[in-house]
Amino acid sequence: MSDGHGPSPETPPGWSAEQPPPYSAPPASPWTAPGSPEQVPYGQPYGQAPQQQPHAPGPQPPYPHHPQPGYGYMPPPPVLRPGIIPLRPLGLGDMLDGTIKLIRSNPKAVLGLSAVAALLASVPMAVGQAFVLDSMGSVLTDPSAVNNAEQLDNTVTGFAAQYGSTLVSYAIQFVVVTLLTGVITRILGRAVFGGNLTAGEAWQLVKGRVPALFGVVGLMVVIMAVPLIAFVVIGVALVANGTGAGGLLGLIAVFFILYIAYYLFFRTRFAFASPAVVLEGRGPIDAMRRSWQLVTGDFWRVFGILLLTSLLVGLVAGVLSFPFTIAGTLFGMLGAGSMVNAVVSAVLIAIGGTLAAMFTYPFEAGVSGLLYADRRMRSEAFDLVLQTAAIEQQRQGWVHGSADELWHPSNSAGS
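Request: output the structure for the sequence above.
Response:
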């Protein structure tokens, strides 16, 4: 016999009899019986008809006409928003707001991992810059030292250290940013439904997709490097044929403009390859083909959102890193020859680079992931799939790990 506090035998497994209906109580029924309490005005005795107020004698002022909803009108249901975004096609404001909510809802996983990745990528470059500033500092204090052979060797060594550290920094950045993008995308996929993942849980879900992620990044590097290799070959051929400096400068200018257009085009076309790898479980080539398909028909909108996000993120990152970069530069140049100043300079520059990248990495990954979700909603009605799942999860009272499977291509009308 039930005590009135547990689910009834008819309640489906996993559901609670005390669980409220999704998101809000159902609106009051418009079919109200005459004389019921809902129709009795406040202060009027129950069972009596409401009294009509007499009109004052004389001409009555005209009353404005306010159109009322038709009989039986029901307002549209509110948009479901169980997590960081409303489950409908998104605008730019929704994506920016959703990315901020992603960071705020899971700061340890998102900002913590971003800080580690940014620090690993910033330290080698900061050390190289400190060497260069230290070698140039004595030239600023004593300009005649520029002709000194020892000073020249120190300067060359400093620049070699900077370029070497830059290559090391880019190599580290290639690895950590690829891994970070995968982890953040997986956290975002769960946050859409209002669920949270720790960094360890996200890594367990992503580690099987790491080879495919590196495959996508490697293919992108090849695509971006092909025009550079062609340019070098053409430039060497022109120099061998005796082309002057003016012709080479003109070639460089034309190539620079064309390469920017080339880079932006393919960067936009393959913007959704990483989310397709992580959330849909696709291979590198299939994920790039999938991204191309999703961007088709909405190229300029996707391009504009990605470009605006990059400009916004770059501006904020510059503001965050500027004070530390200036302070580190001054320490390095004005305290030439001092090991303490070189260390302080490297630390300050590293802090500035870490702060900038710690903001840049998750924000760009978040906007890219939400833009991917928006394109699936617009081109495949994927918002209906998400809404159905969200209602069921709201009834159950929690977000199950099976929510991740909704991103699989089998739930896509275009797959």
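Residues 1-50 have pLDDT under 50 and may be disordered.
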